[in-house]
Amino acid sequence: METTSQYTTKEALLELYNKPLLELVFEAATVHRKYHNPREVQMSSLLSIKTGGCPEDCGYCPQAARYHTDVEAHKLMSVESVIEQAKNAKANGSSRLCMGAAWREVRNNRDFDNVIEMVQAVNDLDMEVCATLGMLDEDQAKRLKNAGLFAYNHNLDTSKDFYKDVISTREYENRLDTIENARKAGISVCSGGIIGMGEAVEDRIGLLMSYMEMDTPPESIPINALVAVEGTPMEEQKPIEQWEMIRMVATTRIAFPTSVVRLSAGRTKMNMEGQALCFMAGASSIFAGDKLLTTPNPEYNEDMEMFKILGLEAKAPFTEGEKPESKPDPIIEERKRKEAERAEELKAAREKLKSEGFEPRKVTTVDSL
Ligand code: SF4
Asked: What's the CA gap between 369 and 360, in Å, rounded?
């Protein structure tokens, strides 16, 4: 991933961000055309595979257990339901599925085994699989990579300075470590931010500087506008002007010319003209579907109409990297081997008893009382 050499300092990026808007958009559009096909926009689907009940305190998030929001907590979806949703998303033109779980961190348990199976199954559908599951260690990242995960999403959200005003239950460094773990495992990194949380423009630039300082900046940088949800500490935040979104997209595009800039949450507050300027300025991905985890998103048909009017095409999967191979997971294979062994032992024991003339005892369960 590349950075643009004249914009590697905070001062230069700030000056760029504050350029007259149309000049900024023109410069971004020029960069975009050099590195990307300007007619292609990826349609991605974001699926909440485990909703709510999160122990973290991210001030913008309705899924944090401590805030009184309308979000109902649900346990992890079944692998079958995820496959069904992925097939629907693909049939509606999505080439990437991002699976989000409201966890502080990944734990090595049966739920994670199920996520591994989801990754394998969705990758087999020829979709780019992205996951956002919270903090991740190196071994967990390797398991996801081995399963065929294309990208791991872990947003830095904002600048290091402003981060403590948004979240108190973890440190900025924790985020950087997880990104590093995904990177080391050979997974493409998706990491971006949210604007409109009450931060200063300098914090938006600070976020970009955090990526600038990485050895390899993220392959994918989602730009979100806060969707202020009732019951969260940020419920009173006023929606940002769409010009701010356009500035942020354009500045990101110029600073990281080869990364994919994603126009993510907050599109419901933008009109088509505003979104068109974002595409012009280098955004080449949207989330399709009427829900973004738990917050609203434009309807599918509205987006199709917008694509038609603007002459955009849905981007095919794996244009920014090869399709990963899904390999068997040694932990799941071992568990399945043990389960099969145990089932065989039980079957043999039952047959032995039967051959010796024992009839199985009738068991009365609570359900049958
Ligand atoms: S953003 Fe993620 S980590 Fe933060 S509260 Fe929401 S679900 Fe939890």
From this structure: 19
Q: Is 64 in the pocket of ligand 1 (CB under 6 A)?
A: yes
Quick: pLDDT tens for 195-222.
Answer: 999 999 999 999 999 999 999 999 999 9
Task: Assess whether 54 carries a catalytic annotation.
Answer: yes
DSSP H/E element including 38: none
Q: Which residue's CA is the closest to the ligand 1 atom numbered 7?
A: 102
Nearest CA to ligand 1 atom 5: 64
Q: Is 289 in the pocket of ligand 1 (CB under 6 A)?
A: no
Residue 52 Cβ < 6 Å to ligand 1: no
Q: Which residue is closest in CA terms to ligand 1's atom 2?
A: 102
Provide the whole-model pTM.
0.90
* Gyration radius of the chain's alpha carbons: 23
Q: Are strands 313-314 and 295-296 parallel, antiparallel or unpaired?
A: unpaired
Give every CB contact of residue 233 below 8 A, 6+ residues apart in sequence.
59, 67
Classified as helix, coil or strand, 188 is strand
**Above 90 in pLDDT, residue 51?**
yes
What is the number of other CB atoms lying within 10 angstroms of the CB of residue 139?
13
Q: Among residues 96, 253, 262, 267, which one is catalytic? A: 262
Q: How far apart are CA 74 and CA 292, in angstroms?
A: 16
Q: How far apart are CA 74 and CA 60, in angstroms?
A: 19
Dihedral (C-alpha) 161, 165, 168, 170: value to the nearest 10 degrees? -40
Distance (Å, whole) CA 119 – CA 107: 16
The question of whether 278 is a catalytic residue gets the answer no
The region that residue 199 occupies, defined by phi over 0 for left and psi between -120 and 50 for alpha, beta otherwise, is: beta
The single residue of 98, 183, 247, 278 carrying the catalytic annotation is 98
CA distance 241 to 35: 28
Q: Encoding tokens for residue 361?
A: 């005892």
Pairing of the two strands 188-190 and 128-132: unpaired
